[in-house]
Specification:
single chain; 102 residues; 5-stranded antiparallel β-sheet; 5 strands; 29% strand
Length: 102
């Protein structure tokens, strides 16, 4: 499995851009999503940008990755997990429409 990592453009370019994210700075191949200005967010898989992100979506993905790191470090308390997913903590889960029976 490949996990997408949000990366923020710090030096834009036509085909490649220097980006910063979890783990440091990387040159991302931007050809699938096109030129992105400085400060823009991209979702990267194996050094290739595959989707542009807004600030809120990048923050939500980073929060989910923080939760994964926390669980892998052994913190599985419900309060800790809920802190990473505040939009899900106080509501019942819902099936997407396409999975609901007609």
């Amino acid at each position: 499995m490949c996990i997408g990592i949000p990366m923020q453009v710090i030096e834009p370019g036509e085909c490649f851009a220097l980006c910063r994210g979890r783990g440091g700075e990387f040159m991302l191949d931007m050809r699938l999503i096109g030129f992105q200005p400085k400060g823009a967010w991209a979702l990267a898989f194996a050094d290739v940008a595959r989707e542009s992100l807004d600030d809120d979506r990048a923050a939500a993905i980073n929060s989910a990755l923080d939760a994964l790191e926390s669980v892998l470090a052994g913190d599985t308390s419900p309060a800790a997990i809920d802190a990473f997913f505040p939009d899900l903590a106080d509501r019942e889960p819902e099936l997407p429409d396409f999975l609901k029976s007609g």
